[in-house]
């Protein structure tokens, strides 16, 4: 039972990290109709910027804002130089261009930071454990990620549902041409949304840095998972991204915890390990395939 | 009929001549490197021709074509492994005969494409891209988890397959087989694109609704296209396993699916010669750059971006524009 609570909290923490990525991805796709495979690279850039600054200045609290600023700048540059030319192009061109960007970012970050993984320390103020559920001590840092993720989710919901900018974002995702015809500068809205997505990806990268190793290719693994999330949730919908994150995050974490245990009761050691690892990695794709077979446009299809 | 030398016809002729000249070049240079590298290009071209047959005319952007490439390779490797170890697989003792296992690889891939295609084709657009990726990832993780067959480390083949009982030792002979297979695959795809079948696929890509109302079962046509593409991709995978005498889950990796897409777009989607140009360009650029610097991705990445932004019809498309 203790294992279950602990793994559920881990699942929640993973879900909310995924949500930070998926939210940006789904907004960019929903509004601009652009598949951005390089979104995972922004996550990697955030993590590397954080880790490098933390190494230099020795403080997580300097690294956090620095990473956000770096990813925001990289995101804005990316939008200006490349993404802007991909609006309205077919998906194949977008997949290709952003695939090229992944290669570029991987090469570039290797150049700047080297091939070996970087380590980032958990800030000492959050180094302890808290018994949020009696009998289950849980790391404060991971708890902070959960709280942060919920805060961002609420903030995004408020931004999209209750502000003028949010209204414009929603309107552009439904009828881009009409918003433009009403005299709004759609290009500016696009740039803003892309920068917002970049910052969220950078935030996910920098907060995950201290609990996973910061390495080349970290973006791609999580990118595919984030894509699974938004496809399950329904592309373009923040609510879908949130529910999708919870489904996928929980399914992945609990699968990783319980599948090996289950197979250990059925088979001998090595076979069970292999089967367990496979099933755990396999589950989220299976879930996605099932969802798409039943609902080809995801759980919460957006208006378009 | 007069032969009117347009740039495209000349380029096609030049490609065929170069492919046929490689063995002589290899004999002149006295090393096997050239012919092995050329075999790699030919096999890559083959899997990309098969991918092009669904992306190009049917407009179905599959981001999981490495699935068939890897599965075809694994069929060959498993047949050889079970024969070598003397452990029957489902009552079959395995085989090392190319004329048995290569068609088997194609059949297995065709069956897989039937299942995965039937499910994927329920979705459209970006959802199709993602569900094909998801299926490829599922198969990738299955082979990563099969520790009995090496898991992540992969599975070496003891020897190349026998071809009609003969051993294929000479790399030039193997290259010849690869070129012959590529020729057949290209001919098949070319005939298919000229047939009513191809016309229906192109019509459905332009307007699914109109094609449906003309009475064509679009879903069935697309599924058939997926099955054929899967089978041809499986053949390429079987050859790749023979070329390297090694298979690993890396053949199924999503980065490889991305690479295939890069090749067909770079080469051009309109002609089966496009993927040959694309495969040659990508593999040569990769090998030159990675020999020159280990940070070759910093150059290659932006190159792909430029292709996506400025050359939507690929290198082959550049030729056509010059004629008109």
Structure write-up:
The complex is a heterodimer of chains A (304) and B (324). In chain A, strands 1-2 form a two-stranded antiparallel sheet. With 304 residues, chain A is mostly helical. Chain A has one domain (2-118, 133-294): ABC transporter involved in vitamin B12 uptake, BtuC. Chain A has 11 helices and 2 strands. The relative contact order of chain A is 0.18. Chain A has helices at 2-32, 39-57, 60-81, 91-113, 140-162, 164-174, 176-181, 186-208, 218-233, 238-266, 269-294; strands spanning 129-133, 136-139. Chain B is mainly alpha-helical and 324 residues long. Chain B has a domain at 32-252. Chain B has 13 helices and 4 strands. In chain B, the strands form 2 sheets. Chain B has a two-stranded antiparallel sheet with strand order 1-4. A two-stranded antiparallel ribbon of chain B has the order 2-3. At the A-B interface, helix 4, helix 9 and helix 11 of A face helix 5, helix 10 and helix 12 of B.
Secondary structure elements and their pairing?
The complex is a heterodimer of chains A (304) and B (324).
Chain A: H1 2-32, H2 39-57, H3 60-81, H4 91-113, E1 129-133, E2 136-139, H5 140-162, H6 164-174, H7 176-181, H8 186-208, H9 218-233, H10 238-266, H11 269-294
Antiparallel strand pairs in A: 1-2
Helix pairs in contact in A: 1-5, 1-6, 1-8, 1-9, 1-10, 2-3, 2-4, 2-8, 2-9, 3-8, 5-6, 6-8, 9-10, 9-11, 10-11
Chain B: H1 7-29, H2 33-58, H3 66-85, H4 98-120, H5 125-145, E1 155-156, E2 162-163, E3 166-167, H6 171-194, H7 196-206, H8 208-213, H9 218-244, E4 246-247, H10 254-267, H11 273-292, H12 297-310, H13 314-323
Antiparallel strand pairs in B: 1-4, 2-3
């Amino acid at each position: 039972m203790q294992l279950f609570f602990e793994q559920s909290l881990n699942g929640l923490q993973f879900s909310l990290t995924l949500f930070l990525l998926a939210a940006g991805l789904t907004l960019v796709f929903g509004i601009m109709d652009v598949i951005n495979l390089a979104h995972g690279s922004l996550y990697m850039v955030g993590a590397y910027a954080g880790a490098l600054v933390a190494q230099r200045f020795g403080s997580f609290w300097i690294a956090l804002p620095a990473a956000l600023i770096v990813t925001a700048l990289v995101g804005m540059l990316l939008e200006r130089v490349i993404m802007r030319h991909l609006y309205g192009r077919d998906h194949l061109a977008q997949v290709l261009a952003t695939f090229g960007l992944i290669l570029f970012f991987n090469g570039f970050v290797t150049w700047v930071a080297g091939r070996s993984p970087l380590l980032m320390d958990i800030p000492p103020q959050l180094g302890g454990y808290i018994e949020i559920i009696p009998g289950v001590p849980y790391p404060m840092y991971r708890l902070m990620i959960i709280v942060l993720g919920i805060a961002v989710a609420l903030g995004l919901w408020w931004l999209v549902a209750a502000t003028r900018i949010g209204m414009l974002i929603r309107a552009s995702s439904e009828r881009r041409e009409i918003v433009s015809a009403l005299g709004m500068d759609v290009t500016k809205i696009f740039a803003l949304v892309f920068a917002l997505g970049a910052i969220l990806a950078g935030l996910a990268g920098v907060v995950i840095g201290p609990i996973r190793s910061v390495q080349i290719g970290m973006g791609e693994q999580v990118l595919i998972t984030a894509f699974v999330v938004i496809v399950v949730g329904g592309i373009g919908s923040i609510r879908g991204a949130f529910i999708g994150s919870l489904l996928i995050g929980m399914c992945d974490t609990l699968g990783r915890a319980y599948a090996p245990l289950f197979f250990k009761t059925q088979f001998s050691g090595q076979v069970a390990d292999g089967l367990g690892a496979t099933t755990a990695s396999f589950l989220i794709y299976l879930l996605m395939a099932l969802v798409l077979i039943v609902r080809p446009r995801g759980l919460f299809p957006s208006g378009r | 009929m007069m032969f009117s030398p347009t740039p495209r016809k000349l380029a096609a002729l030049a490609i065929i001549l170069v492919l046929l000249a490689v063995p002589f070049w290899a004999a002149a240079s006295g090393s096997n490197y050239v012919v092995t590298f050329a075999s790699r290009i030919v096999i890559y071209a083959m899997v990309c021709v098969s991918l092009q047959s669904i992306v190009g005319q049917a407009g179905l952007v599959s981001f999981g074509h490495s699935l068939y490439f890897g599965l075809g390779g694994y069929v060959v490797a498993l047949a050889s492994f079970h024969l070598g170890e003397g452990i029957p697989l489902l009552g079959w003792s395995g085989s090392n005969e190319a004329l048995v296992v290569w068609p088997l690889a194609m059949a297995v891939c065709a069956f897989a494409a039937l299942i995965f295609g039937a499910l994927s084709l329920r979705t459209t657009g970006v959802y199709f891209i993602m569900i094909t990726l998801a299926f490829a990832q599922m198969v990738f993780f299955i082979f990563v988890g099969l520790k009995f067959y090496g898991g992540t480390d992969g599975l070496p083949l003891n020897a190349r397959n026998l071809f009609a009982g003969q051993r294929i030792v000479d790399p030039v002979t193997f290259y010849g087989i690869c070129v012959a297979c590529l020729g057949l695959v290209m001919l098949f795809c070319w005939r298919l694109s000229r047939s009513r079948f191809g016309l229906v696929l192109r019509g459905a890509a332009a307007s699914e609704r109109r094609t449906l109302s003309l009475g064509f079962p679009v879903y069935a046509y697309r599924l058939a296209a997926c099955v054929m593409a899967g089978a041809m991709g499986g053949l390429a995978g079987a050859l790749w396993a023979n070329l390297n005498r090694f298979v690993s889950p890396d053949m199924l990796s999503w980065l490889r699916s991305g690479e295939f897409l890069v090749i067909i777009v770079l080469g051009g989607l309109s002609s089966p010669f496009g993927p040959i140009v694309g495969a040659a360009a990508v593999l040569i650029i990769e090998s030159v750059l990675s020999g020159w610097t280990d940070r070759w991705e910093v150059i290659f990445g932006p190159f792909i971006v430029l292709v996506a932004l400025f050359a939507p019809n690929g290198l082959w498309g550049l030729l056509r524009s010059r004629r008109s």
